[in-house]
Structures are given as structure tokens and as C-alpha cells.
Design goal:
Layout lengths: L7 E2 L11 E5 L10 E4 L8 H9 L19 H16 L5 E11 L5 H11 L4 E7 L3 E7 L2 E6 L2 E12 L8 H21 E14 L2 E12 L3 H8 L7 E2 L1 H12 L9 E5 L4 E6 L3 E4 L3 E10 L5 H16 L4
Length: 325
Amino acid sequence: MRSESHPREVASLGTISGSPGFILYPFTLHCSAKAQFIQADTITKITLEEIADLASQDNNWNIKDFMDTDAYLKTKEEYCKNVSDAIKEISSEAIQKVVLSRKKTINNSSGNPLNVFRKLCVKYPAAFVSLVYIPGEVLWITATPELLLSVKDNKVSTISLAGTKLANSTELWGEKEKIEQQIVTDYIHEILEKRCKNITISGPDEVIAGNVKHLKSSFSAELATDMWELVDALHPTPAVCGIPRDTAKQFIAQTENYDRRYYTGFLGPCNINGQTNLFVNLRCAELFRDKVNLYIGGGITKDSISEREWEETELKSKTLLFAFE
């Protein structure tokens, strides 16, 4: 998808028209990343072979130099302390669940960004893989397993996705993962009940996403309100924020001490042949001229163990790490 005009900044979801395009929406509007709607002037299908050919050419990419002023979590000890603080907050019953994240900065030796995009497309054919490029502003790559919302002809599909284990693990799912997934499922069901009809739920099932696997429940329904009103009610889900949402969001702001930007926001094509597909912005990274910021996190509940939560973020980082080697 290509736009000849500059992307339009989105002040609120209700201002998005029925024009075909692509939306890139941050975790919160109160951050340095602006909600962007890229109107589609051209929509083209392209093969992996054609992407490889383009990547081999000397394309000019106007990519920002790396400049990171966030006092974000850099060490295992810092992250584990924040997880411990979250567990204490949950024990006091102020929060039921909260998602804590961090950034991991690595060198960028990938060359043309299309090389990274192609590697991810090949490795993760079941994921939503995207490369969003706004010259001089942002270069963001995503390989997310999580659908936020799909709508066509008023038919709605969404999922609840939570709990993480190694993809090759033979251990049974524990109570921590089951509770985490049920929290997300209950939240989404409650949101749909107020804005949809004829709701059906299936699962939870096990789904593999790269080198990890999750528990997933699937929803289908008929839309009974405006689509963007439903999106606004769903985002951010407990899978990326927590429960209660406002309390969890406040705890995140006070604890993480960095700007998530588009991480745990959502993105995807809108109004393409009458269909909109939006995805939670997970397993993602922002590319700079010589560095890459990987964004990783995990859901914290009363049964969380700090050391294991750190290990989970390291596992999730491997989803993208190989593509930059």
C-alpha cells in the first residue's frame, strides 16, 4: 500500500472516514508517537521474490538517526524489581493483572529494511507482518500473532490471546497462564456484549507464534454499533494493559518510565474491499540508521515469578532478533 500524500494525523478514532488506508495507532495518544492514517492511493500485490529484488536495489531510505532519551529499563534487576512491585500491587487487590514491558536496543546490520520484512514473512506465514515507513518520521516493523478486530459486512471476529510458553514445551498449562487468558477473554466478552449481538466463543486452544505458544479463544459476532466505537472500547485490552484498565494504565505510566510509542497499540488495513483487519502491535521494533529498538513485555498476575517474567521477555525478543543478523 502506498500513499502519495502525507499521512493524516488522527485526533480520535471517530474522525476516520470510510476511505481505504492503513492505520498506525499508539498505545496511548499521550505519547510521542502520533496516531496516523495513511490513505491508500495505490494497493499492490507483491511476491516474496519481488520483495527480494527490491531489497537488492539501492533504494534511498530516509531513516532517523538513533537518539534515545528514555530512562527505560536496561537491566534484568530493574525489570524484575518492577515485576515484584506489580505483584505487591496485585496482592493489595488494587490491580488484577498488569502488563509490564521494556525495550531492548541492538545494532542494526540488516541493510535494506525490506530484507527484515522478507525474513519475517518467510518465517511467520501465519502472523500479520508489516513494514510501515513514513519518511523521516518512523520505520516500524511488526510480526504479530494477535488480531484486535476484523470486520466485514457487520460480521465481527476477534480473539483473546494470553499465556506464554516455549513452542516445544510439553508441560501442561499452569494456573497462572489459564487465569491470565481468562481475564482477557472475560474482558473482551463484556465489551462485545454491549456493542454486538449473536456472540459465539470457541476455545481456549493452543496456538504457536514463532518460538513461543499461547492460549487463544476466538469470538464471532454481529456488529450493533459503529466499528470505531468498538475499537475504542477494546483498546487497549488486558493482553497489553491490564485490569482494571485505567488503574493498570496508570501503574504502567508510573513504573515503566519509558515511551511505548506504537508498541501495544494497533495497526492494519482499513476499508479494503469492504473489510478492516486490525492487529495488536506486538513482536515489533522501530528501526533507526544504526540501531533497533525491540519492544517486549508480559502479563503479570498474582502467580507471576519475576525471574520467569524476565525470561519470557527474552524469549519474545527472539521472534525478531534473527532478522537483524
